[in-house]
Amino acid sequence: MPYGWPYAVLVLLQAAVIPLVRDPSLLPRIPRHPLLGLLPLITIGGGVIVLGAVPGAVAAVTTLAAFAVPPLALLAVLHVRRWAVPLAIVSPLLWLLAWRLPESGWTELAGDLLIVLAGVSLGRLTGWIAPRAALVVGVLIATIVDIYQVLTVQVGPVAQALASAVPPRGLPGLQQRELLGASMGWGEVYLAALVGAIVATSVRATIAATLGCALGGLAFGLLFGTLDLLPATVPVTVGLLAAGAVEHRRVRGWLSAASRGRKARTMTPDKEA
Questions:
Q1: CA distance 16 to 50
Q2: In Å, what is the CA distance from 269 to each residue of 39, 135, 266, 272?
Q3: Residue 21 in 3-state DSSP?
Q4: In Å, what is the CA distance from 56 to each residue of 46, 59, 165?
Q5: How confident is the model over 137-148, as pLDDT tens digits?
């Protein structure tokens, strides 16, 4: 894929997902389990394995995306920040444009915006059921696995299969983001939404994560001079690390609290004995 403005637009859309996500802690409080922080790994790493090994999985995912993305995009009315609510409200219009108009860069952009909004909904809901620290670990592990799968040529065939898949009933293809030859997977949007959920409580961290993802993605794209496929999870992780750098005191506080909690749990049985 040539490194041109369509790729840059996809990178900037990916970065724009981060500030869109509303704070998950504003939702009703429910029990959360650390193992749910592995959802990014299951979605990205596990998704590539399943799509590459199970016959018919690509067609099933393409159909699922065609029917699930539009309602998830409209559901983003509840999950985006207030200034972005109008975009979620007009998502049915975006879907109609992507469906009824002749395929062009504008219809592809409409579909990309639908995927962005749907990713925000899923990212915030994941941040609601999974602890923030667990999501941080999940994002980092998912990025490492994604890099490995790209370098071992596991992602390429799956990406090509998704690009050529045709949704049923003439519906627009929403299984991945595309713009005039450039493309990015669904998982990268979801990962960016998870980072948005992680940093949503801090304005500084949100700005740092957004800029880190945007600038990291634009710089990372220079590798297209030597590689045909890049792991688009890397810019998201750059944004997460940038957010951690500007909020290093808060990060140290979280780590200290977690360490004290582990010590308290290990000391309790001894005292009872």
A1: 29
A2: 32, 29, 6, 5
A3: strand
A4: 16, 5, 11
A5: 999 999 999 898
